[in-house]
């Protein structure tokens, strides 16, 4: 019996008496070798996938076959990180990978177009809503870019590069979540009708929170060495690696937990704004012909508030694989949806601002409110 123990697992190899008798037959003695190969990169294929664990080889000096008593290998391992390390079929992984790369490539292109249009072609000064949207585009652009580069940089086998790309991708993800929340907070400002002066004062703090708070989190996690190689396991065997968070607790707190808080707030704002749109349609007969625009408005709202990311909460049981596909398709194309929203923002904004225009004629308010989607302010 040969036994190998590690920190989190053990391997017990039992060679049957029959196999030993066949090995020593006709010999005074026999030497058998058990080799454990730990460098899994030696067995990578053209898709950069590798064997899930160590490779065990047994050489007894002779060819042995037709054993009645098998050679037994027992593997003991810890399941402490099994919920975090995902296991899916090779075909599903391949499909999701193609969808992700194509979608993220399209998304990055259109986000770059939005940033170019805003920076180079826009002459008028941007309002707060547009500025928030542009910051969200910048965060999403960085997220898509780091994702597209991740597997290539991971295949280099350089730990420092892997840590940097993992930290950068995590930073861009946290920034994206934060700007979702800031966008929702801006809608809240429109609902309670703060003055323009008040929102400008708040905006300075928004910018610091949007880019500064994620940086603090990532720096702390980097100091604690929480970034490195993350493995996706195939059901058929083998793994695909990427550079990401290595501690499941950190992932659940900083990503799942943080997004759950942002999601709760953005959903409430989404419902309130949706109700206002439907009330406007009922009170104004002329708005019936704009039902398609209202539907587009709601779809755009869900996109810029990051509601579509909520699909991750259905990643359990039989819904796991379908949720992977829905999540991948919706969010890898998010940049394209934002481009359409940005391009059509002028017409979409009218569906939101009509209630505030009515209140302006009542003489209750004498405040200037900015459209949530357009650069043109609606004066009341």
TrEMBL record:
<protein>
    <submittedName>
        <fullName>G-protein coupled receptor 126</fullName>
    </submittedName>
</protein>
<feature type="transmembrane region" description="Helical">
    <location>
        <begin position="169"/>
        <end position="190"/>
    </location>
</feature>
<dbReference type="InterPro" id="IPR017981">
    <property type="entry name" value="GPCR_2-like_7TM"/>
</dbReference>
<dbReference type="GO" id="GO:0007189">
    <property type="term" value="P:adenylate cyclase-activating G protein-coupled receptor signaling pathway"/>
</dbReference>
<dbReference type="GO" id="GO:0005886">
    <property type="term" value="C:plasma membrane"/>
</dbReference>
<feature type="transmembrane region" description="Helical">
    <location>
        <begin position="202"/>
        <end position="224"/>
    </location>
</feature>
<dbReference type="GO" id="GO:0004930">
    <property type="term" value="F:G protein-coupled receptor activity"/>
</dbReference>
<keyword id="KW-0675">Receptor</keyword>
<keyword id="KW-1133">Transmembrane helix</keyword>
<feature type="compositionally biased region" description="Polar residues">
    <location>
        <begin position="361"/>
        <end position="380"/>
    </location>
</feature>
<keyword id="KW-0812">Transmembrane</keyword>
<feature type="transmembrane region" description="Helical">
    <location>
        <begin position="98"/>
        <end position="118"/>
    </location>
</feature>
<feature type="region of interest" description="Disordered">
    <location>
        <begin position="356"/>
        <end position="380"/>
    </location>
</feature>
<keyword id="KW-0472">Membrane</keyword>
<feature type="transmembrane region" description="Helical">
    <location>
        <begin position="296"/>
        <end position="317"/>
    </location>
</feature>
<feature type="transmembrane region" description="Helical">
    <location>
        <begin position="256"/>
        <end position="275"/>
    </location>
</feature>
<dbReference type="GO" id="GO:0007166">
    <property type="term" value="P:cell surface receptor signaling pathway"/>
</dbReference>
<dbReference type="InterPro" id="IPR000832">
    <property type="entry name" value="GPCR_2_secretin-like"/>
</dbReference>
<dbReference type="Pfam" id="PF00002">
    <property type="entry name" value="7tm_2"/>
</dbReference>
<feature type="domain" description="G-protein coupled receptors family 2 profile 2">
    <location>
        <begin position="96"/>
        <end position="346"/>
    </location>
</feature>
<feature type="transmembrane region" description="Helical">
    <location>
        <begin position="130"/>
        <end position="149"/>
    </location>
</feature>
<feature type="transmembrane region" description="Helical">
    <location>
        <begin position="323"/>
        <end position="343"/>
    </location>
</feature>
